[in-house]
Amino acid sequence: MTNTSPTPPTPPKSPASSASSRSPISRFPHLRQDFAASLVVFLVALPLCVGVAVASGVPAELGLITGIVGGIVTGLMRGSSLQVSGPAAGLTVLVFEAVREFGLPALGVIVLATGALQILMGALKLGRYFRAISVSVVEGMLAGIGLVLIAGQLYAMAGTEAPASGVAKLVELPGALVDSLGSTRALASLGLGAATIAVLVLWKRMPSRVRSVPGPLAAVGLATLAALVFSMPVATVEVKGLLDSVQPPPLSAFGDLLGLGLLGTVVAFTLIASAESLFSAAAVDRMHGGPRTAYDKELVAQGAGNALCGLLGALPMTAVIVRSAANVQAGARTKASRVLHGVWLLLFAALLPGALAYIPIPALAGILVYSGAKLIPVGQIVSLWRGHRGEALILVVTALSIVAVSMFEGVLIGLALAVAKTAWEASHIRLDVIDKGAGPVQAHLSGNATFLRLPKILDSLEALPQDRPVELDLSGLHHLDHACRTALESWAERHSAVGTEPVRMTAEPARPAAG
């Protein structure tokens, strides 16, 4: 007789066993895209990290450390999922000036204090307010940085030392280039730098297969190969080793924070790094359809990265639009791509530090000259001049102020101009007078009555006939400040003092509530 007893049912898998049986692909569905994108970002970031460090006057490894922290630490934190952080060309000039004035040990203190301020601002939810900074000021800041960066790196391309001030860099540049024509070493250096720039400019016209290699990496690689093959007498990067380059700031350096000069530098680092990072985040958000940036969390992430960089004595970090754009264009889907790019930088710095010693400094200078040129928004200036000349003026004055004075003062001048322009435009006022020849003169004020336009208002009112009654209609005013209110009342008393019928003021804007 056949046994027909039913087969016992298979027990359901527990959640733990189900999760453990999942493949890495199912748990990380975008791993393939993120892995490929991380390699592209690594290849873009490597020469830029080294170039920014050398141009800042610090060991090349410090730029790699900042790139590693920006990838692994800041990359793991919340904020912007596809934005990539690291050392930026936009801070090169400021870092160079800080190291020259306060010394390399103080750099760690400045960067640490910058990070602490960024964390505080993020915790206070001030990140979103950076979007209120005038775009013209930011563009002018970047243009000024670009001008100083180009001038300084042209000296590096020629193998000569650059003057300290921005004005001197520009004024003495023609003479320095003419002098270099009489030196074989300087000509070789200039030629290699110029060839690097040419590769970067022409790289976009190469076939798509060739362009799979990032332009900066190709330019540096070709320059390094040329220098080796032809035994060119050019300076190369000095290598100290990753661990030897890590120099935490000594406790004695923190006493410098009591000085106004160092505090001003910290404020400049904080404002510029934060503005550049958050403007970059807004630009990256327009490039993809994924989650939007949480500005306050991104500011905290940038602050945490800068605080760690400061403890390690490394360069400050910002979000970098070049690396971020490369990340998005390479198909990155999650923050894993930027974290992995930091891992690749760490492996390179740990396993192949000697490779840096073959990189010619003129090639790195050429990359930064090219990067500096991209910071100057020539097209933006032309379009602003056609439609918004006031904004164009703010941009140009900010840039020139940075060149002529310094980064911090230049930005403050730009901000002051932007505030003054906004206040002037907000105080627009119009006075319309209707005089029918008989009866009272009717005067209508419209717009915003502020102390900035008070002389114009009083001149127009005092020009009204003294022997005629006046009806002053204030219904068109959006705002009437205390200075204007008091001045109008005084004018009304003076106008009525000669025996004319008292001035009638109608529809006055409501006074703000007390307390």
UniProtKB/TrEMBL annotation:
Keywords: Membrane, Transmembrane, Transmembrane helix
Recorded GO CC terms: membrane
Matches recorded under InterPro entries: SLC26A/SulP_dom, SLC26A/SulP_fam
Chain segments annotated as transmembrane: 35-55, 62-82, 102-124, 136-156, 186-203, 215-237, 257-279, 343-372, 392-420
PANTHER family per UniProt: SULFATE TRANSPORTER
Protein name (Swiss-Prot/TrEMBL): SulP family inorganic anion transporter
Organism lineage: Bacteria, Bacillati, Actinomycetota, Actinomycetes, Kitasatosporales
Subcellular location(s) of the protein: Membrane
Low complexity bias locations: 15-24
